[in-house]
Amino acid sequence: MLGYDDKRDFFRMMVNSSCELIITDDESSRSVSAICKDLSATGMSFEVDESIELGTVVQALLESTNSQIPSLNAKAKVVRCEPANDSSYVVGVEILEMR
User: Fold this and answer.
1) How many angstroms separate the Cα of 61 from the Cα of each of 2, 9, 18, 85?
2) For residues 97 and 27, what is the distance between their CA atoms, to the nearest angstrom?
3) pLDDT in tens, 9-55
């Protein structure tokens, strides 16, 4: 029997790297520190210290530590936000645009 991960269109790459999420809404813009847990061709997941509302558009910035691999700068929409434990959340985003 196929598991859930076997039904994905794209494989996930485990990352576990610090990154920055820039959240811009109608009133302001703020930066949130995050840990990028995984990355695929169409989405990413992060661990953050606060809940982020579904549908929120964020800019994800992931600096490369290798000069031959460019840094990632993506515009993305929050499609999932679940508590990971008492003090953090796992946020799943759909990549809308690579910059």
Assistant:
1) 34, 24, 9, 24
2) 23
3) 566 778 889 999 999 877 778 999 999 999 988 999 999 999 999 99
